[in-house]
Every structure is written in C-alpha cells, then in structure tokens.
Amino acid sequence: MRQSKATIMSVNHAQRVDLEVVADLIPPQSRVLDVGSGDGLLLELLQATKQVDGRGMELSQRGVNECVARGLSVIQGDADKDLKFYPDKGFDFVVLSQTLQATRNPKLVLDELLRIGNHAIVSFPNFGHWRVRLSLFVEGRMPVTKDLPYSWYDTPNIHFCTIRDFVNLCEELGATVEKATALDANGQKIGLSMPWWFWNFFGQQAVFLLRR
Amino acid sequence: MVALRTKRTNNEADEPSSPVLRFGADKPLKLDAGTLLSPFQIAYKTYGTLNDARSNAILVCHALTGDQHVASTNPVTGKPGWWEVLIGPGKIIDTSRFFVICSNVIGGCLGSTGPASTNPATGKPYGLDLPIITIRDMVRAQLMLVDHFGIEKLFSVLGGSMGGMQVLQWASSYPERVFSALPIATGARHSSQNIAFHEVGRQAVMADPDWHGGKYFEQGKRPEKGLAVARMAAHITYLSEAALHRKFGRNLQDREALTFGFDADFQIESYLRHQGMTFVDRFDANSYLYMTRAMDYFDLAADHGGRLADAFAGTKTRFCLVSFTSDWLFPTEESRSVVHALNAAGASVSFVEIETDRGHDAFLLDEPELFAAINGFIASAARARGLSA
C-alpha cells in the first residue's frame, strides 16, 4: 500500500515538469483560472512568484478541500460541465494542465477556455511520442509508461491526442497558437528550430499558449 | 414554574443580560414589509478588541434558534456558547486576534426587538402585531450595529443555515462593507420542502390552545406542547438517517421489551421529546414563527430579476462556501448554485463539500475538515487584508 502510494506521488511529480514552462508564460499580477488545479501546485507557484489573482477548479473533492485549507481559492467542479458558468474573458489566462485528455468533450472544453480567457494555456501528454508508437507497433498493446501508468481499462485518460492532432483542433476552433513548447522525456525543451514531425515524435509533453 | 419561566423569557427580551443598542424615533428600522420599526433595539455580544484601523472585525450571524451568545456561556441555558468549538482565544476564529461581533437577530427573543418584546404603544408584548421580519431586515439592523462601532469594512461575515442566508444578504446588499464571506450549509433561497417543514412547525404552535392567537403572555400561558412538537419535527431535518441509525438504531429506552403502548419505547422518541422539552425553556413560540417565516421568504435571485449572479455583480468580496454531504435541508446543490452565480459574477470563491453523516447540524460540531477550510480561508484573507498574524 505504501509502495503504491509512493509510486503515484513520484509519477505525479514527474508529470509536473510542465508547470514551470506554464508559469513562465504568465506575466505578474495576471488573473488566472487553473482548470484541474489538482493539489494546487501551480496556483501556489504562481502566487509566490507572480503575485497572480489565482482561482482553481478541481474535480476531486479531496484535492479541493486540501487547497482551500492551504488558503487557495478553489472550487469543486467539472471542466466538462462547469466552465459554462464563467463570463467571457473573465481571466487573463485559463490553464488546463494535464487534464485535456481526461475530459469527456475536449473540443468543447478547449472552446470554453478560449472564451473565458484572453489566453489559454494547455499542456498534455503527446500520444505521438515514439515510445507510445513503439508499444503499439511492436507489442500491439496500449502503452503503459512511467508518465502514463494506467491500463486501458482503468485510465482516466479517455481522449488522447498527438501534438499534430491538437494543432488541427486549434485550427478548427479558430485559435491562434501564440507559442508552443515540447518537452522530451527528461523535461527538457526541444529546440524551436525542429520541425513539427520531430516534436510529434520526440515530445513527451506539449505546452501551448493560445488565443482567439 | 411556568409563570417563573414566562417572566424570565420576557425579561431577556426587553432587558437582556448582554449589551443592547437602542434606536429611538430618529433612527427607525425600515422593514421589507413596508413599515418602520421604531423604537427598536439590538442585543449583542463582542469578543476580543477592535484594532485601531478597525479592520479586524468579524460578524457572526446566528441560525434559526441561535442567539448572540456565540462564544460565552448562555445566560438562559447555562450551556457553552453555540460556536465555542470554533470561536475563542486561540481557536480557529481567534478572539485574541479578531474582534468578533454576534447580535441577536431582529425578530429573535433574546434582547433584540421581537414578538416577545414589549410594544411601547400598548405596554404589552408585540405578539403578532410585530410586522413580518425578513433576512434583509435582520441585516439592515446589523449594519446599524456595525456603523455604531465605526467599522467601515468587516473583515469577515460568517454563519451557517439562516446565518448563512444573512451572510449572502450582507455580501449582496453591502459588498463594499464585506471583505470576506463564509456562508456555511445554506442556500440563496428556501426550498419548497424546507418551507413545508416550517409550515408543519408553525401549525403545531398555532394548534396549541395555549397559543391564544399569539397573545399567550397576556394569558399567563405558553404554547409549550406545540412548540415542542415543532422543534421535534425540525430537529429530524437537522440530522441524517445514517446518523440517527448510528446513534439510536431501534434501541429501546430504559426497557427490555416493547410496552404495547404509546410511551417512548424507542431511544429516538425519548431523545426527540427531550429536544422538544428543553427547547421551549429557551425559545419564544412567536419568535419561532417569525424566524421560520424570514427563512421561507428568502430568495436572493428573486430580488434580482431571477438571476442570482446579478445579486453579486462586480463584487470584490472573497467567498468560501461549505456544504455537507448528508445535509438534506441545504444539500450541496444549493451551495453549488451560489458558487456558479459567483463564478458568473467573476467573484473570488472557494467551495468545500465535506463528507460526513452528521447532516445539517454538522456546521455546529467539531468537524476537523470544516475547521481546516475555515482556517485556510481566514488566514489567506487576513494576509490579503494586511492583518498581522
């Protein structure tokens, strides 16, 4: 039991290398809504380093209660259902980090992010990464990796996409990509000069700054 | 014994054992019913010290049958204050740091003008001659008390149930006077089911022959049986089926077997009877009618063209709402609709739902998760307000 909890913690930590990339995109004193704020790590980072007016929405009640106990402004809510209550352009930045693939209707959610925020920042695991492709190609099995540790039947991640897929969706929604970053397996940024196919192959995670 | 109690209740209504602020003819209270209440008085308690900047004041709003004795011994029951688990020196709401104000609501029976108070026009208790009081009337009176202390902006307003309604009303009516708001186990309106339960309670009071059309003091009587039944019915709604079963099950009361009669065979019956009996010792029946009516009439969205978000338009107040999973009087959905309205208004809002089987009354109990949420919210609001720890 202890063992498995520790494993989950370290996996979560490994997934959060995108947080600093996200934080770098946000200027001080911005109004920020973090959708899927989890344990509140990003909000705390942003409040400490950027003095933002930060709000969070998180699905897990336990995560919410812990955030509020730590003084963060967080509500329990579902990205699929509850974004509609926010007014147009109510925030400078709306962040959706590592959550898009777990939503029921990613297209609608992304549309809502672009409506609510002057900018949207979306980070997600790239299903086009070579390890994922290898797993499917060689083993013929759904990939289970360090960053995506779930089996196909118990994963909360129901809508995976590749970096390419995501760029297509942005075009469909009329969103402008202001900035995009791909992170390799070590959390290092992949060089800007590299072509899309290279990012799509070697990027384990992607962080997009969008507006509409 | 009855006469003695009657006298005592009446005294507490006119000459409370807590401080009282009296407003003469020059300062009437404007009521939603369309009339002015004058003269009138507000009984209150304070704890702690108001700082020089007058920025550390917290207003606590009490629930249906609560009173101003939030953090000190109740003069009528001799029991600890109703929120002493939360408020006091070194507690979550630390009275060595904050100036805590709690007043008896208008329409109450412990020193603020209510149906048990003496009507100066007749020299007799108001009874039903008192106009209907609303949540907004209560808050208007509280504002006059806050003005009396010279407090420009309350650091926080908090309360549960009917107290939570007052918190929402404060935040809506006087957003610039409320830095942070903590409405707990409440809603922006009273549901049809809640009005139904209140109506049962009122009918029980009014069906008691000792009620005398509300003029029982003049007859030297009190509708104790009716009020006790009202309390018994209401008390069930403050708990949950799971909690009742956990505490009482089908256990028998001081007996080995069923008696085949209508005595209190079951522990739950005995418990409820006790709740009813002790309640009538401390509460005025007419005041119970007025309090329940005030809650029934509360509908914040209706006051803003049906759009709850408009009740909070442009608000700068920081909100934290709390609900409990087993509360069927004010279910989580009621809080959630307030949260959605606050989101739509662009407000800063936290919302915590706490898992417990203790029902609506959980807000008055020792609930560590509730305290953790209040603590985190108050601490971060205090930082934002520049209040030193």
Automatic annotation (TrEMBL), chain A:
A Pfam family hit: MetW
Q: What is this protein called?
A: Methionine biosynthesis protein MetW
Q: Which domain of life is it from?
A: Bacteria
| Species the sequence originates in | Mesorhizobium prunaredense
Automatic annotation (TrEMBL), chain B:
Gene Ontology cellular component?
A: cytoplasm
Q: Kindly report, in one word, the top-level EC class recorded for this enzyme.
A: transferase
What SUPFAM superfamilies does its record include?
alpha/beta-Hydrolases (SSF53474)
Q: Where in the cell is it found?
A: Cytoplasm
Q: What is catalyzed by this enzyme?
A: L-homoserine + acetyl-CoA = O-acetyl-L-homoserine + CoA
Q: Where is the active site?
A: 161 (nucleophile), 327, 360
Q: What is this protein called?
A: Homoserine O-acetyltransferase
- Organism, by scientific name, is Mesorhizobium prunaredense
